[in-house]
């Protein structure tokens, strides 16, 4: 399976972009959705979080209190390390399972920490959804109803814009209006169909 890694910082619009690829029938494996699934009520990971932090880590309905946990781990690097060691192996296992099951002409692996977590090793090509830090901050504050300080803290632990640009094979610029995205996605989708097709031998097996 030919894998396109899609990444970008918080508020960059990765989901909007991958939804456009999905309209062409491309399967999208979303690391954020998998991360939520591994923390579902009754899961071993959520049980471990509850045991470590107590009931304040949970909402009244038993789901993870994501806002509280985000503030907790971003204020204490050792807690962030503990949480990553708990969740990252589970997320990676699910990613691999879903990539193996994908059946579209190519498959997208969407992850905000694609570079930081070395998930680029699973990808044949990397697409960056790029925006300026000011736009990231503005969109995230409006979407998540959080403070600029909290957004800045998240941005500081993610790869920098320059680091992402250095790794990216392709770039979608998303500082502008939504209408600017569709032509960029269409052009890249056609490119990826060609690349994925060339990566296969006539018998359908990877080179």
From TrEMBL:
Source domain of life: Bacteria
Keywords recorded for this protein, A-Z: ATP-binding, Coenzyme A biosynthesis, Cytoplasm, Kinase, Nucleotide-binding, Transferase
InterPro entries xrefs: Depp_CoAkinase, P-loop_NTPase
Any GO MF annotation of the entry: dephospho-CoA kinase activity
Substrates-to-products reaction catalysed: 3'-dephospho-CoA + ATP = ADP + CoA + H(+)
Annotated binding of ATP, by residue: 11-16
Any Pfam family: CoaE
EC number(s) reported in the record: 2.7.1.24
Pathway: Cofactor biosynthesis; coenzyme A biosynthesis; CoA from (R)-pantothenate: step 5/5
GO cellular component: cytoplasm
Compartments, as annotated in UniProt: Cytoplasm
One GO BP annotation of this record: coenzyme A biosynthetic process
Function: Catalyzes the phosphorylation of the 3'-hydroxyl group of dephosphocoenzyme A to form coenzyme A.
Entry similarity comment: Belongs to the CoaE family.
Protein name: Dephospho-CoA kinase
């Amino acid at each position: 399976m030919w894998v396109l890694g899609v990444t970008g910082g918080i508020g960059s619009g990765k989901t909007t972009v991958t939804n456009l690829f999905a309209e062409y029938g491309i399967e999208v494996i979303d690391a954020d959705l998998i991360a939520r699934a591994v923390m579902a009520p009754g899961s071993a990971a959520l049980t471990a979080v509850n045991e470590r932090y107590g009931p304040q880590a949970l909402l009244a309905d038993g789901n993870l209190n994501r806002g509280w946990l985000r503030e907790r781990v971003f204020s204490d690097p050792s807690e962030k390390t503990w949480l990553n060691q708990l969740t990252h192996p589970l997320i990676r296992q699910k990613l691999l399972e879903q990539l193996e099951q994908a059946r579209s002409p190519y498959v997208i692996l969407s992850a905000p920490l694609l570079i930081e977590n070395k998930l680029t090793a699973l990808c044949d090509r990397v697409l960056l959804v790029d925006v300026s830090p000011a736009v990231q901050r503005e969109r995230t504050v409006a979407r998540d109803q959080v403070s600029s300080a909290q957004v800045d803290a998240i941005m500081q632990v993610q790869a920098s814009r320059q680091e992402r640009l250095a790794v990216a094979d392709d770039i979608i610029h998303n500082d502008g209006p939504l209408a600017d995205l569709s032509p960029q996605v269409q052009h890249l989708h056609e490119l990826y169909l060609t690349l994925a097709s060339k990566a296969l031998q006539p018998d359908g097996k990877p080179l």
